[in-house]
Amino acid sequence: MLSILIPSYNFDVRKLVHQLHQQGISLTVPFEIICIEDASLQEYVELNQTINALSFVTHQVLSNNLGRSKIRNYLATKAQYDYLLFMDCDSMPVSEAYLSNYIVQIQPNQLLYGGRCYQEEAPKDLTLYFHWHYGTHREQSTAKARQKNVYQSFMTNNFLIPKNVFQSIRFEESLTQYGHEDTLFGLALQQKKIPIQHIDNPLEHIGLESNYVFLKKSELAIQNLYTLHTKHSVHKEIKLLYFFLQTKRLYLHYPVLLLYIFTRSFLRKNLFSRHPQLTLFDFYKLGYLIQWTKKH
Prior knowledge:
2 domains, 3-stranded mixed sheet, about 45% helix
C-alpha cells in the first residue's frame, strides 16, 4: 500500500523515522519506510543506521551524491508499494494521525500535498530568524489558500503520489544543484493534467538554516530558475521570472542592476536583522537574477 521515501543528507532522521514507524504499525495497511543517505558524512550514517533495527524500515548509504532530483527517482525504484509518500528528512509530523490522514484521502491518479509549517515561536538565535520569518510568511499556508493556486503552491517536502503516476513524470535529473526541482515537477503535473488535492496535513520544517546558508541556497535556486527559463520554457508561471521579463521589456535591467549593486550590503543587513522585509528580499532576488544573467 504505502512506501514512505526519505532522502537524507547530513541530518539525524532517527526521531522522524521512529515516529513514522510508530504510526505505521497502527495502520491497517502494509507500509515500508526507505531512507537513503545521499553521501552523508560518516557521523550521520552511524547515527541513522540504527533505524535498520525497526521492522519494515530500510536504511541505505550511497557513496556518491546523486542530488535532490535523482535521489528521489532512485527512491521510487526501491519502493514495493503502489503509493509513494515523499518527505524531507529535516521534518516532523505535526499530527499523530499524519499517515492515516493521507491513507483515508487516497484516490487513484491524484496527488495529495499536505503542506509545510514552522514552529510558532520565533527562534531566539538571530542567525536562524531570516529562514523562519520567510518560511512562516511565504511557505506556510492552509490547504484552502493553497488550493487557489493548485500547482504553483506545490512543494516536494510532503506529498503522496500513486507510483504509476510518478513513473510517468519523475524528477528532472538535469537539475543537479539546489532549487526549483519542485517547480518543474509541478509544471509537469499541470501539463499532464494530473490533479493535486491540497490537504491540511503538514510537516514541520525543523531544519532551520543560518542566514548565510539560507541566502546562499536562495541564490543557487535562482541559478536553477534561470536554467528552467532557458531550457524548459518556464516564464510567467514564476513571479520572479515574470518581473525579470517585464523589467527587460521596459529596458530596466541596468537601472535595477545598478541599484542592486549599490544597495546589496544594506539589503543583506536588513534581511539578517530581527525585522527582515520580504519585499526587499524580492528585490534582492531580482537583482541577483539580472546580475547572474549578465555573467552567464
